[in-house]
Design goal:
N-FG_amidohydro; alpha/beta; N-formylglutamate amidohydrolase
């Protein structure tokens, strides 16, 4: 039985990319008999609605398969959650999870990264550089649905830049300025670098391979645009996050004087 990984790639004439690696909720039917988690448990740790936010006027790479089947933002040997410490203390799979399925999933991970590498290489060949907006969301209220969020420890937007080449510092400052010159939900924007997250495997991979040719901004929105416990969306806030990044893409075009 061949396991399927759902993904979508949309390309346009642009050196810029948006990725939504954790939006997906799909689990291959062949794996369902081995899965211990409910849909609600999975949704809690996935990044729903980030694919909507990633629908920007740039190239797009969206994974529709759940991170609980295969986490594309982790190194291949950590991409299937076989131990609770890999998955927020959750036991994901029955102990009878077949080795043949595990090997298939690792090969799918490697295939996806070959695809990503090819597309980024094409961007470099066509434009001389690339910028990736790696879009995620995160839970900031793990205590209870009614607990108060510690906003000092949980910025509205955590920008992962830790692995980027130092040559992109000026670009990073420009990127942050473009965001803070706007508002989100009618309020000033609290965006800080590397507070909760420094960037996952995608940014590490691309920086190791192409770091002097482009950079990855890992954008973690605090889940203020949804109820992180129930998964219920706030459609207007999702649209606001998307518009924020549309405006930011325009800022990238101006920075690089790119007219595409």
């Amino acid at each position: 039985m061949s396991l399927q990984i759902n993904y979508h790639i949309h390309t346009i004439d642009s050196p810029f990319w948006s990725f939504a690696l954790h939006d997906g909720h799909l689990i291959d039917d062949n794996l369902l008999p081995y899965l211990l988690l409910s849909e609600k448990q999975r949704l809690r740790e996935e990044d729903p609605y980030t694919a909507l936010i990633a629908e920007l006027p740039v190239n797009q790479f969206v994974i529709g398969t759940s991170r609980f089947q295969l986490d594309i933002n982790r190194a291949v040997e950590e991409s299937v959650y076989l131990r609770p410490e890999q998955a927020w203390g959750l036991e994901v799979w029955k102990t009878s999870f077949p080795q043949t399925f595990l090997e298939q999933l690792y090969k799918k991970h490697q295939y996806i990264y070959r695809l990503i590498e090819q597309h980024i290489q094409s961007s470099i060949q066509n434009y001389g550089f690339f910028v990736v907006l790696d879009i995620h969301s995160y839970n900031a209220n793990r205590e209870s649905p009614t607990a108060t969020i510690d906003e000092e420890a949980n910025p509205q937007i955590n920008l992962g830049t830790y692995y980027n080449d130092l040559k992109w510092r000026e670009l990073t400052d420009s990127f942050i300025h473009t965001i803070t010159s706007q508002t989100l939900y009618g309020l000033p924007i609290d965006i800080r670098e590397n507070v909760r997250f420094k960037g996952g495997y995608l940014t590490q991979f691309l920086n190791k391979r192409f770091g002097d040719k482009g950079c990855v901004f890992s954008i973690e929105f605090r889940k203020d645009f949804m109820n992180e416990w129930t998964g219920e969306p706030d459609v207007k806030r999702i649209a606001a996050c998307k518009q924020l990044l549309i405006n930011t893409v325009q800022g990238l075009k101006e920075y690089f004087a790119y007219e595409g």
